[in-house]
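Cont'd.
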Amino acid sequence: MGFVLDFEKPIIELERRIREMRDLADSQNLELKEEIERLEAKAQKLRQEIYSKLTRWQRVQLARHPNRPYTLDYIERICDDFMELHGDRAFGDDPAIVAGVGHIGGRPVTIVGHQKGREIKQKLLRNFGMPHPEGYRKALRVMKLGAKFGRPVISLVDTPGAYPGIGAEERGQAEAIARNLYEMSRLPVPILVIIIGEGASGGALGIGVGDRVLMMENTWYSVISPEGCAAILWRDAGKAEQAAEAMKLTASDLLALGVIDGVIPEPVGGAHHDPDAAAKILKETILRELDALSAIPPDRLVRERVAKYGRMGFWKE
Amino acid sequence: MSWFRRTQKGLVAQQKKDLPDGMWLKCEKCREIIYRRDLEENYFVCRFCGFHFRIRAYDYVRLLADEGSFEEFNQHLESVDPLGFRDSKRYSDRLKEAKNSTGMNEAIVTGTARVEGIPYVLGVMDFAFIGGSMGSVVGEKVARAIDRAIELRYPLVIVSASGGARMQEGALSLMQMAKTSARLTLLSEARLPYISVLTHPTTGGVTASYAMLGDVILAEPGALIGFAGPRVIQQTIRQELPEGFQTAEFLLQHGFVDAVVPRKELKARIAQLLRFFGFTPVQQAGEPSFACPEVERQ
Ligand SMILES: [Zn+2]
């Protein structure tokens, strides 16, 4: 199982006991069925209890859970076929963003998404899911390619932020993100954006403008990471838990604030607890949303997309 | 130059808060002592080394608008506290303090003006208001400035100065990046030009949205321009940043701004560009007519 969050521990402990009891029942041929069922019911109840009252900080932790499915894990599970396309045709290929074409439930789609790595080598290759400008430019190139043939875009967002480095600045990180916001605003095909993990700042929004923006249940999305916010406003990155509470960064918060359009439920225990079940829910959601969006003519789609972002925010006059 | 001749009382007072009081000032860059009046007459640019002192939004309005031509709109838009945000201070208190110390309602001023007789929509950000950060109101005022430009068929100029998106409004401030960028597609569709002027500093969410989306992008000499701030980059990569990193000149060298323009040339350059785009001076009542006859723009 590996990595375990503090609040997951009681469940993991119970699961361990259930496994032991099963082993015992098998090896000793004991009749423990009733006892095992009792414990399983208890584990289920405990899981529901813990997961029904997660704090914002716990959601942040779940969004970063190292066993949580990443973009390619979902692509593998939801696509009939998929072909990754590389490079921005200007500078290079950025492995922190995956872009490609494929089919989901028989429907042709363009898919873009941030990609994190799981072991240290993969983590370094994927730069911890922090893109450089060429990642955003590759994503835009592939989205435009798909749009030329009327293919809707599925964007899977999962990044701790765009990379803050020398090369990234030299090659125009800000321009690359701004360009994507502009071009995604007027791309004449449906765009469905789904936050599958972390949605940090412009690095997330850089592939995150769409007709429908959904968040999976245990994810976060905001203008900066809780650590970044705490470092600046509290002058102490250790105050991240407080910052997470103040920033209102969960799916239900952002639904209430009108920033997103819906929340995708995860299996009890989180997407990392059952990636297949999480992918199944994701796929059903994507197909349902695509059906609805595909019925809208492209010019209306674009007009309503621009208008939707125009309504965001609060002020008085 | 009518730099300070027409200033209102309040604006003079604001200026003093941004620059130290006294007849004599020391240049932040070359350390030369400068007579305040000299500095004012030289557009707050050091005569010795060309250092551009930071100036306020209404100073840019005076610099870039023909005398008496600026008519502000949407000045009554005010921020609220949608998250009930509190760090060491309440966001609502921070807003109050910013209003008191700057005499402004928000970090951007927008209005119509004329530059060398050519009517246009002008937006100017002010770093003194919570670091020029973009919350819902800044985003909304930029969006409405774009709408006004489309409605009047005026070109748009925005002078940026910003530390980025406003953290106290969370994801709502992030969405202002999408709002403003999306709205600019309509300006482009209406075939109206947008000139973006970058001043010191322009970073974060403002750079990564409308500031980098100008049809023409001008920058003041020495201005810090970037996505991530230099401190964040240094903490991430743990090495020295190259000399001149993220300056206007660095961006020019890497192909991200069209020209670095000294402050005193800014107005003439903007007018020059607008003339190229086909905009002509309007005749004001009681003013002599300009040479070119008015041509109906399509
Ligand atoms: Zn100097």
